[in-house]
């Protein structure tokens, strides 16, 4: 009979043998799996190398194609046969976006247009007030000379100034203020700030933002040139134009100068914002004698819905604008074409 110790040693030996066999089988299985994974990895690596080779070949071809495309683009954009519309489409597709959305720019333009209209109206009221305060400075005679072709005249000063007189003065002032608005630099034969149209638009918008909140007190302290040389030159040109229109060269009082500054600033901002669009927004002018068209004009003295007689434009008070897919109507005064 075997002793307990011998039995225990026998059991342990059998367990070790079985464990060794199991471990060997497990190791063989793991080795086989590892070899299979290795073979799969080698095949995948070979496929990747092959793909990289094909990709490198395609990349070389793509670089050559891009080089040819750039060359063709340079030739196309310098060719006079290419339409402006197609060139703008190429530029628009690669230029960075404006700092604000298109809708914000449109609403901003409409707001500035309204401010410009009101500021010119205030300038005209200040001129009439100047007539009241300085009866002997000759301004009344100058204004009446401008109003004479329209069979109007100042009578009794500001308190008795008719709407017709005020609107006609607005028309005369707006004609001077908006002259050369179509030009990118707002003066005849002016050139753009930047030859790249996209960059020029961004610079126009940056100038608009910089001057939007410029105040009269800041101008009194440092002058317009400190804030913008372009705006300063614009103010000088428009002041010369208004003085020439009025034929009144006497020194202007501060209140009148402030009204002029506000009007000039609003019109300048309107121009900057118009040329921040691509393409720039177009001004809409109406010549005297044109038949009234309700789609493009607003009669500021008559109700078009109540008048059926044929009317024509007597004078344009405020120009309009083509604002993308909408029209900001011209403000006009009409007369009965049958009279």
Automatic annotation (TrEMBL):
Q: Which InterPro entries match?
A: GIL1_IRKI_C, IRKI-like
Protein name stated in the entry: GIL1/IRKI C-terminal domain-containing protein
Domain GIL1/IRKI C-terminal: residue ranges? 283-332
**Gene source species:** Arundo donax
Which Pfam families does the entry link to?
GIL1_IRKI_C (PF24994)
Q: Which domain of life is it from?
A: Eukaryota
Region spans: Disordered:
76-97
């Amino acid at each position: 009979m075997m002793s307990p110790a011998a039995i225990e040693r026998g059991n342990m030996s059998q367990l070790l043998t079985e464990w060794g066999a199991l471990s060997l089988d497990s190791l063989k299985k793991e080795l086989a799996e590892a070899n299979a994974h290795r073979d799969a990895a080698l095949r995948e690596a070979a496929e990747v190398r092959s793909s990289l080779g094909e990709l490198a070949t395609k990349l070389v071809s793509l670089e050559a194609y891009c080089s040819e495309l750039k060359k063709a683009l340079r030739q196309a954009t310098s060719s006079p046969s290419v339409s402006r519309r197609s060139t703008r489409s190429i530029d628009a597709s690669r230029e960075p976006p404006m700092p604000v959305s298109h809708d914000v720019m449109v609403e901003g333009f409409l707001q500035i247009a309204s401010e410009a209209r009101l500021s010119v109206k205030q300038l005209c009221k200040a001129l009439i007030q100047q007539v009241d305060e300085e009866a002997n400075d000759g301004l009344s005679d100058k204004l009446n000379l401008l109003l004479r072709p329209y069979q109007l005249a100042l009578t009794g000063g500001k308190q008795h100034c008719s709407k017709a007189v005020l609107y006609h003065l607005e028309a005369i002032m707006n004609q001077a203020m908006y002259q050369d608005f179509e030009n990118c630099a707002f003066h005849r034969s002016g050139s753009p700030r930047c030859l790249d149209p996209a960059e020029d638009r961004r610079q126009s918008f940056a100038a608009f933002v910089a001057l939007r909140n410029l105040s009269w007190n800041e101008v009194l302290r440092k002058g317009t040139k400190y804030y913008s040389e372009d705006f300063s030159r614009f103010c000088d040109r428009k002041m010369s134009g208004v003085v020439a229109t009025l034929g009144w060269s006497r020194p202007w009082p501060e209140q009148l100068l402030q009204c002029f500054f506000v009007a000039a600033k609003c019109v300048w901002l309107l121009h900057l914002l118009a040329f921040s669009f691509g393409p720039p927004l177009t001004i809409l002018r109406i010549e005297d004698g044109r038949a009234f068209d309700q789609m493009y004009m607003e009669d500021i003295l008559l109700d078009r819905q109540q008048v059926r007689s044929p009317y024509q434009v007597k004078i344009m008070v405020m120009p309009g604008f083509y604002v993308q897919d909408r029209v900001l109507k011209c403000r006009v005064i009409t007369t009965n074409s049958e009279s």
